[in-house]
Amino acid sequence: MRIKSVPEQEATGELAVQYAQAKADSVLKIVPPIIQTMSLRPDFMAGIRQAVNTLHFQDGALSRAQHEMVASYVSALNRCRY
């Protein structure tokens, strides 16, 4: 089963704004697929993006790069492409 989502080229209104901001935040300058899974609820997407940017990837004990490496490693262990 796949999660329904709105493709980037079909996004309008608040979703288009959220996609543009997510793309700008992305190191690869893409809308990450995990973010696209929230496309049916742009309000929810905005909250998640804010939490990720201000809490999860904020420099502290680990840098953003180190957070990304840990997240990538855990995803690989779980065989998750995200």
Number of continuous helical runs? 4
Low-confidence stretches are none
| Share of residues in helices | 55-70%
Radius of gyration: 13 Å
Number of strands: 0
Question: What is the total domain count?
Answer: 1
General form: globular
Cα separation of the termini: 16 Å
Main beta sheet: strand number and arrangement?
none
Beta-strand portion reads: under 5%
Q: Averaging pLDDT over every residue, what do you get?
A: 87
| SSE sequence, one letter per element | HHHH
Secondary structure category: mainly alpha
What does this structure look like?
With 82 residues, the protein is an all-alpha fold. The protein has one domain (8-77). It has 4 helices and no strands. Helix 1 packs parallel to helix 3. It is globular.
List the keywords:
4 helices; 56% helix; 0% strand; mainly alpha; 82 residues; single chain
